[in-house]
Amino acid sequence: MKCCTSKVATGGQLKRKIIIQTATKVQDDFGEETETWANTATMWASIQPVSGSEGITGNQINPEVTHKIMMRYRAGVTPANRVLYGTRVFDINVVRNIFEENRWLELLCREDI
């Protein structure tokens, strides 16, 4: 029996289909290196705007976090990735492995507007 419980998304709350993307460098016809994004995985997730109180870190408002994305655990997701939801893009700032159980990931993101 676990000593602690926390509100973690359940499968029924994962209603948003997101795409995890990874940056890759490619050379164009002129030898110029450019960054493109490749789809790495398609996942179901919940996406929540972060309230003002959740965006406060060390008594300072953190404008770098606008949304919290909860998804099932997937190895290799880091702040070097980004999330695509429809036409919206979310840059990942922090990846948290909830309870270190490899069951849930919480992504603290900033929507790229």
Description:
The chain has 113 residues and is an all-beta fold. The protein has a single domain (11-112), classed as Thrombin, subunit H, CATH 2.40.10.270. 0% of the residues lie in helices and 56% in strands. It is built from no helices and eight strands. The protein has strands at residues 16-27, 33-49, 56-57, 60-61, 67-72, 81-85, 88-97, 104-112. A six-stranded antiparallel β-barrel has the order 1-2-5-8-7-6. A hairpin with a 2-residue loop joins strand 3 (56-57) and strand 4 (60-61). The model is unreliable at 1-6 (pLDDT under 50).
Q: Quickly name the level 1 CATH class.
A: Mainly Beta
**Spatial ordering of strands, largest sheet:** 1-2-5-8-7-6
- Give me the Rg, rounded: 16 Å
The structural domain count equals 1
Q: Please name the CATH architecture.
A: Beta Barrel
Question: Main β-sheet, in a few words?
Answer: 6 strands, antiparallel, barrel
Order of helices and strands: EEEEEEEE
Multimer state: single chain
Q: Whole-Å distance between the termini?
A: 44 Å
Low-confidence runs: 1-6
